[in-house]
Amino acid sequence: MKLVDIAKVIRSKNAGPTTLTLDLLFNDEAGFKAACASKSLTADAIAKLYSQPRAKVEVLPYPPALAIKIVMPRRIVSGDPGDSDVYGAQQHGPMLAVEL
Amino acid sequence: MTTAIERIRKSVVGSDGKLAPLRVMAASGQLGYGIPDPAFNAGLERKPHLIGADMGSIDPGPYYLGAGKMAQSDTMVRVDLAKCINGARKLGVPLLIGTAGSAGAAPHLAATLDMVREIARREGLHFRLASISADMPRDVVKTAIRAKKVVPLGEIGALTEADVDLATNLVGQMGIEAFQRALNAGADVIIAGRACDSAVFAAVPSLLGYPMGPTLHMSKIIECCSLCCTPGGRDTIIGTLEGDSFTVDSMNPTRNASPMSVAAHSLYEQADPYAVREPEGTLHTKEAKYEVVDEHRTRVSGSRWEPATQLTVKIEGAMRVGERAILLAGSADPRVIANAKSITAGVEKIVRELTPPNPAKPYQIIWRVYGIDAVFPWATPPDPLPREIFFMCECIADTAEEARAVATVTKQYLLHHGFPGRLSTAGNLAFPFTPPEVAASTAYRFNVYHVMDVDSLEPLFPLHIEEV
Which residues 372-431 of chain B have a CB within 8 Å of chain A? Predict the structure, then answer.
């Protein structure tokens, strides 16, 4: 099962200029639970996907919105020379290929 | 004459001290990008007790703070400001605007205030105008650094006194305290420098004694207007505080606030979905309950406010890096596309030989090849390769002329670069227009994004009152 098939929202955005957050929102309880239980969405797996040290990635389930929040440092401070995405709104690409 | 805050107090505080429902209208999630009329007018018809609008954010990057410029166009800011001022004056309710002019530093505040005065003159309006500045005194920040009272927010490094001097603008985020001082001074219209989004909407209810948990949580939800709805949008929204809960109600009937959409908004642009830190305390939403009122509205209860034991201010500063020029060009040649990496590396080597960097202030060349890996640093190249790619070569140099020189030399050598197997010997690039190298203004970077412990907020955010 692919993440894109059970998520209704897969988005990324800055939470301030030093932090990137990814929000995964699910259509139903079953999808949310499957995602929470999946080995593909552990902090380890996400750290690998985004080339981040494991200790810097947090995966936070948020049941009120059937959502999972992922938090990690931005690769580069927003708007620094060499940045590619000032708002951080296009950093969700790798999530689209995730198999649960 | 009674002040704006006294009028609200009279209308919502009963003789027994009980608080009637308080309607808080969020006119715009970011003033200056256009406020749709139907929802704005529907909001006014609900007779809100106050109107608030956020006007800025740190999201658009360091340029606006560093340069002291607005991200929005002056024309649209004037239109939106006039709409809000006229609406608030018609109802006789206070108007609160936070983070004036995109970044909330002195030049942004001054430009916004000029527009407010001009609108008042033009429309024949008279009111008490409060402005609150948010520029951090540099000596205060340096003293705090020496006392080890400044910590970085994320991976930006420890703040140095040199950074404090290098920042062209240095602001702090004010909280509800500053807005409340302005309200107590009888302000009708408050234009604030850099401010917490939520403070714009929370200042009035917390001054009147509405419970802080629901007040802050509501403010956090409505500051982006109808973005918390399905489908999300930018239309005016009203939050109503009642007892220990609040309801959200988009003024666009097609945008519905559902328990799920409102809860999901608590995630938006937050690192921690359950805790939102403000200068005066922290909002905890772990126990919050989201309930359906009807298909259009949602009620939220159970949020908790924890007052801070230590007052803090988030500080932001941006410094100049250099002058930026960019080269824009496309290619549809499969061999150019397949060799893009080696071509750009080869061209850069030649450019650096022909325009030697000044060792004291060397320029930077930054390549982005759209279609390959310009947006995300993919581990592997696309397979198959794209049919077209787009080159953007950026140069940041000490002077605009040097940046332009590097960009133009790059253009010529990229156009005619030879590589093994090349077929397109008349030129590797398609320019959509000329000149393809464009001056892209001064480059800045955030060199301050820290939190500072303070003993008192008031002296950092001075209030100025004038009658217009």
Answer: 374-379, 394, 396
pLDDT at B268: 81
A69 contacts in chain B (CB < 8 Å): 267, 270, 273
Residue with the two structure tokens 């259009």: B296
Q: How large is the ipTM?
A: 0.95
Residue B137 amino acid letter: P
- Chain B positions touching A48 (Cβ under 8 A) are none
Q: What are phi and psi of B356, to 5 degrees?
A: -60, 130
pLDDT tens-place string over residues A5-64? 999 999 999 999 999 999 999 999 999 999 999 999 999 999 999 999 999 999 999 998
pLDDT for the residue numbered B239: 97
Place of tokens 């519905």: B256
Q: Are B30 and B227 in contact (CB under 8 A)?
A: no
Question: Is residue B264 within 8 Å of residue B300, measured between CB atoms?
Answer: no
Is B112 within 8 Å of B84 (Cβ atoms)?
Answer: no
The CA distances from residue B104 to B113, B138, B167, in Å, are 12, 16, 14
pLDDT for res B295: 92
What's the rounded Cα separation, in Å, for the pair B140 and B399? 33
B374 CB neighbours in chain A (<8 A) are 84
Of B284, B287, B288, B289, nearest in space to B272 by CA: B284
Tell me which residue in A69, A73, A86 faces B267 most closely, judged by beta carbons.
Answer: A69
Q: Do A77 and B61 touch (CB under 8 A)?
A: no
Whole-number mean pLDDT of chain B?
A: 96
Which pLDDT tens digit goes with each residue over B11-70?
A: 999 999 999 999 999 999 899 999 999 999 999 999 999 999 999 999 999 999 999 999
Alpha helices, DSSP H, located in chain A: 3-6, 29-37, 43-49
Instruction: Assign B443 to helix, strand or coil.
Output: strand
Contact (CB<8Å) B273/A73: no
Q: What six digits make up the tokens of B87?
A: 């609406």
CB < 8 Å to A59, chain B? none
Task: Give the residue on A whose Cα is nearest the Cα of B370.
Answer: A84
